[in-house]
Design goal:
two-stranded antiparallel sheet, SH3 type barrels, alpha+beta, 6-stranded antiparallel sheet
Length: about 140
């Protein structure tokens, strides 16, 4: 029984690897897509909703739409990797050789000695490029 189950799982995995549409069906909801319709040069920039064996359902400008698999030439997906945040800290130190005779009297007199400053900045990395996950006529 276990042997039979393993065979079925292996066959299903091999079939999914051969079926290019299986990659489209595996895309998570909310993923950014570029969908190229048959005969169109400009792609639709949409968000993935779901894919069935014969249709792709997506959200375009807050409106749910679907296309038959037969109407689609290509589907590109943007990987959902989170953008990297880069932190950069700069520190400077200097030795002030102020003349102690020129010190200004008061609560914080100008005293000779080292001074320093520090600044930190954060930057967001760019979005990853789209990757083609389906193309009509991809070899199985």
């Amino acid at each position: 029984m276990l042997r039979c189950l393993l065979f079925v799982l292996a066959a299903a995995t091999a079939f999914a690897a051969e079926d290019p549409w299986a990659k489209v069906k595996a895309i998570k909801s909310g993923t950014e897509l570029r969908v190229y319709k048959k005969g169109s040069t400009q792609p639709l920039l949409v968000k993935m909703d779901e894919a069935t064996d014969d249709r792709l359902v997506f959200v375009n400008k807050n409106e749910q739409t679907s296309l038959d698999k037969e109407e689609i030439d290509r589907v590109d997906a943007r990987p959902s990797n989170k953008r990297a945040v880069t932190k950069e800290t700069k520190e400077t130190m200097s030795d002030s050789n102020a003349d102690p005779r020129s010190a200004i009297p008061g609560p914080q007199p100008n005293r000779p000695g080292p001074t320093g400053s520090s600044s930190t900045s954060f930057s967001m990395g760019g979005k990853p490029d789209f990757e083609t996950v389906y193309r009509r006529g991809m070899k199985k």
